[in-house]
Amino acid sequence: MLFCYHSSRYFSVCVLVNRTFVYLNDFPGGNLSGQPGGKFTEFFHIYQDGKYCTFPHAIEFLCRPYADIFPILTSYPELENYLSPFMDAWLGGAQEQLQGQIASAKIPLTRMISPQLYWVMSDSEFPLDINNPERPIILCVGNNPDRQNIYGAALGLYNSRIVKLINKKNKLKSAVIIDELPTIYFKGLDGLIATARSNKVAVCLGFQDFSQLKRDYGDKEAAVVMNTVGNIFSGQVVGETAKTLSERFGKVLQKRQSISINRQDVSHSFNTQMDSLIPPSKISTLTQGMFVGAVSDNFDERIEQKIFHAEIVVDSKKVKEETDAYSPIPVINDFIDKSTGKCEMERTIQENYNRIKAEVKRIVFDEKLRIANDPRLAPLLYRK
Prior knowledge:
Blueprint lengths: L2 H8 L2 H5 L17 H12 L8 H8 L3 H9 L2 H15 L3 H16 L4 H7 L26 H19 L7 E5 L10 H7 L5 E5 L4 H8 L1 H10 L3 E3 L4 H11 L1 E11 L4 E11 L3 H4 L6 E5 L12 E5 L4 H9 L20 H28 L6 H4 L2
Parallel strand pairs: 1-2
Antiparallel strand pairs: 3-6, 4-5, 6-7
Helix pairs in contact: 1-3, 1-9, 3-4, 4-16, 5-6, 5-16, 8-16, 10-12, 11-12
């Protein structure tokens, strides 16, 4: 599965697992905390032509002792220069600082060690270029609320790779629909929104409130996402989100009349004032089914009324008829042992988990043996 390697070229895997890296002012996507993770996956891309290039193999390799990792990676000319700062720190007696740097990526990644996640991410059942004209695919993935932070990192890794593959010319029209966006970290989301339209990729993002986006993506990236989208549909929201939407919808010149009554006469005065087209108070008191929003148009498809405040009517009867006609999802693998009739899912998943751990141990052993038998590389194993 080359997906693991390609993902590492765009960002470090630790970014997806530990979102706090995003908020660091000096984070460029390849600092000391993140760079090793990408080189581990590049090693598996090189090793035996990517036969073991999966995310679980990379995690298991990362959990090996540093005395095994650094000599193996340094023995490859393609990775030697990238690993030289870490080798210098390791050989120069700065093991504590080096361990602190790598542990910042290692500790969050170890939370992803589970037989179930290894089963999902250890094989390649289908390609991720889902809008390929020769083999279009509909891909649906879901998160587990109980393990949101763990699975959200894995989903973010898949999403980032998918975006790179589908956001290209000469592909089929496609859509990226993400509900509850803050539950996953989507690296490069702002760039996708800005460029996907020209490649016929529609991006639909759903979340409860702007504050969620700021909390999980940071103020800067959240602001870019909010200001880049062209179409907005919003139900009832309050606070800063309602104010932001009201400002986005703009103001309109409204005519006002005031009446003054005293004992002698009644006076009327008229004036005009710029007021919010849809005030925050109106947005914060919308009932179910009522929406406000704004839409964008094209050169050849002009929309005169771009801002709306209306009720979206749902035909419940037709929706029910459609859902009743759904075909059941086919069973890809039922894990049933045909000889005994028992479900062997847990045993099969555990065997896959044990196989990956054994393969990484064997890779480390073979690589150390290769280095030891090479007079030019042998000193790497004995440096202290």
